[in-house]
Amino acid sequence: MYEIDLDRPKEACGIFAVYNHPEAAKLTYFGLYALQHRGQESAGIVVSDGKEVREHKAMGLVPDIFDEQILETLKGSIALGHVRYSTTGSSLLVNAQPFRVLYAGKSVSIGHNGNLVNAREIRRELESEGSIFQTTMDSEVVLHLVAKTMREGLEKSIIKTMGKIRGAYSMVIMAEDTLIAVRDPHGFRPLCLGRLDSGYVLSSETCAFDLVGARYMRDIEPGEILIIDKAGMKSIRPEKRFPLAHCIFELIYFARPDSNVFNQNVYIFRKEQGRLLAEEFPRDVDLLMPFPDSGNYAALGYAQASGIPLEMGVIRNHYVGRTFIQPSQSMRDFGIRVKLNPVRELLRDKRVLIIEDSIIRGTTARTRIRGLREIGAREVHMLVSCPPHRFPCHYGIDFSTRGELIAATKSIEEIRKFIGLHSLDYLHIDNLVRATTVPRDELCLACFDGEYPVPIDESGGKFCLEE
Amino acid sequence: MYEIDLDRPKEACGIFAVYNHPEAAKLTYFGLYALQHRGQESAGIVVSDGKEVREHKAMGLVPDIFDEQILETLKGSIALGHVRYSTTGSSLLVNAQPFRVLYAGKSVSIGHNGNLVNAREIRRELESEGSIFQTTMDSEVVLHLVAKTMREGLEKSIIKTMGKIRGAYSMVIMAEDTLIAVRDPHGFRPLCLGRLDSGYVLSSETCAFDLVGARYMRDIEPGEILIIDKAGMKSIRPEKRFPLAHCIFELIYFARPDSNVFNQNVYIFRKEQGRLLAEEFPRDVDLLMPFPDSGNYAALGYAQASGIPLEMGVIRNHYVGRTFIQPSQSMRDFGIRVKLNPVRELLRDKRVLIIEDSIIRGTTARTRIRGLREIGAREVHMLVSCPPHRFPCHYGIDFSTRGELIAATKSIEEIRKFIGLHSLDYLHIDNLVRATTVPRDELCLACFDGEYPVPIDESGGKFCLEE
Amino acid sequence: MYEIDLDRPKEACGIFAVYNHPEAAKLTYFGLYALQHRGQESAGIVVSDGKEVREHKAMGLVPDIFDEQILETLKGSIALGHVRYSTTGSSLLVNAQPFRVLYAGKSVSIGHNGNLVNAREIRRELESEGSIFQTTMDSEVVLHLVAKTMREGLEKSIIKTMGKIRGAYSMVIMAEDTLIAVRDPHGFRPLCLGRLDSGYVLSSETCAFDLVGARYMRDIEPGEILIIDKAGMKSIRPEKRFPLAHCIFELIYFARPDSNVFNQNVYIFRKEQGRLLAEEFPRDVDLLMPFPDSGNYAALGYAQASGIPLEMGVIRNHYVGRTFIQPSQSMRDFGIRVKLNPVRELLRDKRVLIIEDSIIRGTTARTRIRGLREIGAREVHMLVSCPPHRFPCHYGIDFSTRGELIAATKSIEEIRKFIGLHSLDYLHIDNLVRATTVPRDELCLACFDGEYPVPIDESGGKFCLEE
Amino acid sequence: MYEIDLDRPKEACGIFAVYNHPEAAKLTYFGLYALQHRGQESAGIVVSDGKEVREHKAMGLVPDIFDEQILETLKGSIALGHVRYSTTGSSLLVNAQPFRVLYAGKSVSIGHNGNLVNAREIRRELESEGSIFQTTMDSEVVLHLVAKTMREGLEKSIIKTMGKIRGAYSMVIMAEDTLIAVRDPHGFRPLCLGRLDSGYVLSSETCAFDLVGARYMRDIEPGEILIIDKAGMKSIRPEKRFPLAHCIFELIYFARPDSNVFNQNVYIFRKEQGRLLAEEFPRDVDLLMPFPDSGNYAALGYAQASGIPLEMGVIRNHYVGRTFIQPSQSMRDFGIRVKLNPVRELLRDKRVLIIEDSIIRGTTARTRIRGLREIGAREVHMLVSCPPHRFPCHYGIDFSTRGELIAATKSIEEIRKFIGLHSLDYLHIDNLVRATTVPRDELCLACFDGEYPVPIDESGGKFCLEE
User: Fold this and answer.
1) Closest CA in chain C for residue D300
2) Of B175, B208, B242, which residue constitutes the final position of a domain?
3) pLDDT per residue over B380-430, tens digit each?
């Protein structure tokens, strides 16, 4: 959907890069297109033909930003692309990525997914030495660090930079004839390597490999620096191992169901959530349904495990666009039905079970449930396929633009009343972990249990560079 | 979906109108938005404040054509809106509707859904008397006929006009202070009347009433002329009754599942198709699935009747836009996966049953089935929830831009081979009729059985005014 | 200048047409571009390749409306183009010309310059017979009349039409393989015929011939119908001669100085106005100047005849655009200087004589003169190179959007005071006539003397079809 | 004119700034609009309300870039604006000015007019210390230098920066609550200070003061640093005096005739050039004329001194826009007449003298002269109101995009033949200097005599940072 639902979490970014392919820009376009769900605010592609570096960035969606004519100007066999959703609230073109600078007359670009927890601190240091900045992004800080030690060579420079920065980061750096993929030592965010003809591709998710016909090779390892250049591929791995902390929310929410993330298929993971939900919370209802598309796969899992009929009881309007006009005050209830219209004939007098993947602020759910009751549903129950979200994320997810995590301040019973449900339950955290193939101590579950794997900046709270 | 799938049938139009509401234009905007699936080529709204008539029309989708500023200029309490998909192949702004003319210094506008079978004949007559035309649309012919007898009053004039025109037509005519709804005597296309506050609304489908919060009152009756003006509502019904011929394809395909059409809920009709399909053709497979969204509801019906697990085995990219760039020749297989990506981990080594709502040319199905086999599906079966389409439609549906109805020239076995399936079957026409609440002799089934309720123009074949 | 100066007269239109040239549309584009000064509101080109007729029209200036891509779609060797400034106040795309209709499946287009005085009357007649209209333009009335008698052939039909319409009209009608030029029997507005390679061109002014490299042949004669088709060129001249009435304002104001109009060069005519002004009104001043570009040529004539130094004492900003932002209330005096800035060092303490080509409302002149006095000009005198405008025009010139002809209600002395001048005089009408090569009884001088050559519609006053 | 004439010199920039006015952005808009002739490639405005800094920049002309809505978002009482024509050939938005960076969380912006001759050298030094760049502009180098020493305070930092940079520069730097105007010690480019209500304005030329109603106070002195903040105005002047080098081409060509530059009125200077030209080169011709608008004022001066009649013998099309379509190959001579059409009736059989302000490549002149001869001018003579341009400029003027100064390689006689003239002469350099009020040793005449006041970068030739 194009419009922004304030009641859904927002991701930082998607990255896609190509090394050694004659249609690098076009492949990157398709790759970004497959990753569009990871960022709808701006997109950009930087391309190098070994001599010249060209770029195109703009606010908006990938298919609106690029056309044949623009792609044709982006000549070269190395490309780096990025889609972005701001984690800091400032939606400006200057913050669109890849971020590109000139160093010694050469172009260095970066595409970044994640959030550094000590960026502010480093920035202060750099400024005290006379550095000036264009943006408020972490990525610019990273490039300043790289430039400071560049005389020792790009490789050493990146090792030193990784020694300074802390937090969640999967990033790709493009110099004129080199592509470097870097993943933080905890492995918060995904980043995959693939093969396409005689070239290489890098992507935040494997679904982009499917689209361009690339073959998945492996994940970039936590802490790894992968350098691809004319000499081939070279990997630098950290001496010290850090505890892993794969973001569970990538599996629950961000990744497309047709992607594999942390070596696990997302569709099957989500169905398993539903199966475990059926095991933990059997319900006596006439039918069950998701709101498209948030709980689709858990709903399938629950239906297959329980035998309760699955219905698609609310119909989505496929033409919802970004610029949709707001109903007038006197039409204020339209909002509910613009995107989703419940099928009255199906739901009237029925006991309905809704399967949801998450509740952040609870306001959208409340409106939708009211809509179901207005058309005559007898009972409305809800099951959420993960535990309550009680803690903010410092590693790149913006759970709520207003900091209003309903579960941070309300009990489940209070949430049930707020939304207007007959019953409400959340999957137990143990069952959530059971649904994954990842060991519990290699997951970041901080949004559920408050245990942050990497301590945050002294400035505390939500990290924000905005003046 | 924004892009045009050449392998799906195309509808002529959707109509929405409002009488006596201070926000007539905005309501109409929302109404058209809910009817967008009936026409994506152009849209327009004409509004009257009793004195002045204003309009805005453009090529494209409703949310792209109108914005707050434009809607604010469309002042008045009577409005007529229209979304159009051309049945004649000419996509020009001049053909966008509502079509508006000046007669005796007054504005008369028309929104039309359907296809006249004797428009060419009437046009020739009019031209021989010196009439000049702006467009090639049926609607202009209708307004010329109305103007010819206007001196006897609008009411008589419309009765006379209906005596001349033949074919499928649901239309709304707006004079400066009057709204007139007309439906052809056979009732081919739907048209409903609703109530909103102290005003009236007219819509092609009831889902638009849900969105604007209107209450459905009744269908405009076949042959009825409904006049709404300051004096209230007045109905003129034909003396003679014609045989009814409700278009079955409205139920099978065009209408939104949350609409009621011909007094029947579309969602429930489609599930019933699936249930009867399960009864007629039981299959021994591991899972069943639709391609979103063409066979969704029949698939639910089949799954519930058979107990076979339903899966959403192909993932749709929600960001597919109209201007999507074509993959290069070397990337030609991308096309399959740009919109829909199958979940490899789910489908590999499985026996898969696809439920489809129709096969027109068969080319899209062929590409998709190939995609399933490439990722390792063991067997792929297909069931279609209606009989084979063997005959063209003369009443407003453009089954194929190239006239290539695969079932018109190929046997079911040949189609199965063409698409590359393990098995293929179609719902029997008797079962299709059983799924409806409409008696068989009140349905138009011409696309399946070739029995056309209204004989077509002497010029034969597809009606077309294009030079 | 792009922006609209309310204090300048507005012309109806410019016409340009091409017969038999492979680049007809592109030539027409250039022709309209040269005629842009005759209409800045909308422009359009209709082209025929003998089979198909294509068109492009839009609001705005010629170079903004057309680009290479659009011109390439306008294939054909016959073209008709039009630039328009509305005389009726309604600025809608539907009123852009050429106006095109379908008659008997064929395209007939018209480009019209002038104003009919009995259009309303004819329109009423047509409506009483059931005719419907798209626009409020005279041109549509003309095409209805043509269609009514079309069965007798295009030629007869046009003769009959000319028998019905009265007023000022130069027009070109384009059927699929024919171009017909028509000029009213009084010859109010210009229309010229030229030769280009093996084809013909028609233009409102000869300056367009210069631009496209065409050779001027002759003016279309008053009352002439010139038909150009495959058979060659054929001329139908009226039996009866009407008194000629060439619009003096074409020479004074509308035509470009590099055009010849009514067989007279405009530049030389205007210099002659200045020379006669010097003869009639010698002035003892330090310098003389025009406001660019309204009195340029008369100023040259005056300077050469008198020996008084000519200066370009106000500097024009060449970048004034249509969308110029208005100064705030507190900056209200900006308006004067945005377009024209006087050169303080040149004008301070000087006795200045301004040469103007006309004063309509007097408000712009007043503001400008105030500007001159503010920077220290000692005396400011003005001479106008024609008599005072006392009467409205019924033949296509909109002297003022508010009907405020200052000379209609004020004496010259009152105007002098209103504008704030030391002295003010107007060229005597006899001198104005002396400056032309046209006999006095072949000129329309109605705006100066109120003698209208063609009586106007019974409805009286300013002709207006707007509801 | 909007389109770019390759045969005219190009200026770097215009600057306009406002301190302490509630409508700072709107005033700056008007100021830039008056300075549009100094740069048509891009424009930008940065505004500070003391707390937040906002900006808007884009490619194109001022009235196209800004509208009411955008200006309303630019809130604040301090503003800095800039119009730019690239001297380096790269026309990218990233190079649009003002250039803005963040330093220690605060915004610092710069608007720059001129060209540094040692920017490349400084850039290399900065890069060796790890600095990264966004652009190839001098302005970014300046801001890096400022940031390096910022800890010592903005004032000291700017003094140190001016100690490092060499060349031509007039610039304005805007910190959040301070405006700093700086002019290089030689005074190459103009920069003026004015007063408006209780605020201050800075402008490249005085014509912008006229438009906004500001009062001219004085020029920023060569080498001066003027700091305007809450404490008032403070001036830092260099201890050492450098030889002055005012660019003569500002008077000859760049500045608007209604501006005063280097304390001299431009209009009067140019008329004086014409008067001296008449003295130096009397000609026996029938008339003299400029090509609008390049030699207008010198032509006036010549005409008044000689008594030869001045004519405006070529008519300009006021609607020439940026996107003008090129004539086809077969119409290749159109180019001459699209902008300027000679008046045949005036010039035929005449001996014509053209007054020009400069000849750079000579190609445009050649085409125009051919046009005059084609319409029958008997003799065409030309006088140029300055000496031949023989040397490139290193201080910000791009005389020719291809480095083709015709006078660098051809004698006057060869140029005469190339252009196709009966005679050609250039004003003597002594007469040029006589036309000014500036002593000869305070002028930069390098483009005529090759004596460069500031030695250029070791890299030699045209300064260029482009990779």
Assistant:
1) C311
2) B242
3) 999 999 999 999 888 888 775 446 789 999 999 999 999 999 999 999 999
Q: Token digits for B402?
A: 């190239």
Alpha-carbon torsion (A183, A187, A190, A196), positive or negative = positive
**Nearest CA among C98, C451, C83 for reference residue C256:** C83
Q: Are residues C179 and C325 in the same domain?
A: no
D136 touches A at CB < 8 Å: yes
Mean per-residue pLDDT, B197-204: 96
Q: Is the CB of B149 inside 8 Å of chain C's CB atoms?
A: yes
Taking the alpha carbons at both ends of chain D, their separation in whole angstroms is: 31
Q: How many domains does chain C have?
A: 2
List the single range of A285-294, A388-397, A422-431 with lowest mean pLDDT. A388-397
Task: For an interface test with C, give the residue of B46, B129, B132 to mutate (most C CBs within 10 A).
Answer: B132
* CATH, residue B152: 3.60.20.10
Least confident of A426-440, B6-20, B120-134, B140-154: B6-20
Residues A445, A451, A454: CA angle, nearest 5 degrees: 95
AA identity, residue D404: E
Based on the domain organization, do A94 and A18 belong to the same domain?
Answer: yes
The CA-atom distances, in angstroms, between D158 and each of C66, D129, D148, D187, D362 are 50, 20, 10, 17, 43
pLDDT at C278: 98
Q: Which of D62, D258, D310 sits opposite C300 (nearest CB)?
A: D310
Q: Are residues A236 and A272 in the same domain?
A: no
Report how many Cβ contacts below 8 Å link chain A to chain B: 176
Closest CA to A190 of A249, A140, A239, A150: A249
pLDDT at D233: 95
> Residue D404: which pLDDT band, with cuts at 50, 70 and 90?
confident
Q: Of D178, D198, D243, which is closest to residue D23 (Cα–Cα)?
A: D198
The low-confidence residues of chain C, meaning pLDDT below 70, are 1-12, 86-92, 320-336, 400-403, 457-467
- Mark whether B287 and B232 lie in a shared domain: no
Question: What is the rounded distance in angstroms from the CA atom of residue D415 to the CA atom of residue C392?
Answer: 55
Closest alpha carbon within chain D to C34: D317
- Answer for the pair A20, A198: CB distance below 8 angstroms, yes or no: yes
Interface mutation vs chain D, best among A46, A102, A459, most D CBs within 10 Å: A102
Residue D322's identity, in one-letter code, is R
The residue whose two tokens read 């076009």 is A26
Is residue A259 situated within a structural domain? no
Structure letter (DSSP) for residue D254:
I
Q: Cβ A130–D147 below 8 Å, yes or no?
A: yes
Under an 8 A CB cutoff, do A132 and D151 touch? no
pTM: 0.84
User: Helices C412-419 and C363-374 sit at what angle, rounded to 10 degrees?
Assistant: 50
Question: Active-site residues of D: which are they?
Answer: 13
Q: Domain residues for B377?
A: 266-440
B317, B350, B355: best to mutate for the A interface, most A CBs within 10 A: B317
Give Cα A338 distance to the centre of its chain.
25
Shared-domain flag, residues A341 and A389: yes
Nearest by CB to D132, from A147, A151, A467: name it. Answer: A147
| Chains near D (3 or more Cβ pairs under 8 Å) | A, C
Say if residue B372 is in the same domain as residue B226.
no
Residue of B nearest to C101 (CA): B134
Same domain, B145 and B289: no
Alpha carbon distance D354, D370 (integer Å): 13
Q: Which of C145, C43, C140 lies closest to B134, judged by CA?
A: C140
- Whether D233 and D292 map to the same domain: the answer is no
Contact check, Cβ <8 Å, A61/B325:
no
Cβ–Cβ of D135/A102 closer than 8 Å? yes
pLDDT of residue A105: 76
Once rounded to an integer, what is the mean pLDDT over residues D224-247? 93
